[in-house]
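INFO batch 0412 | record 1 of 1 | parsing
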Amino acid sequence: MRMKFRIKPCKFCDDRLRKIDYKEPITLRRFVTDQGKIIPSSVTGTCTRHHRAVTHAIKRSRNIALMPYHLDVTQ
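INFO prediction complete | emitting tokens
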């Protein structure tokens, strides 16, 4: 039996007013694992264009220390 996969709609395409901003780490944290890895677009459901923008925003946010490179679980 074959599995049928439902294509997830892009959250940013549905919400045309929503912008991807590197100054909002709370929004970007949904796209990062506990280890600091960026979650792939196949899991999050973002389209290619918006996933590139999310990745770019995460890297900018990490660079100016708004987001950590990895979350320390030992604390």
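INFO post-check: The radius of gyration is 14 Å.
INFO record closed
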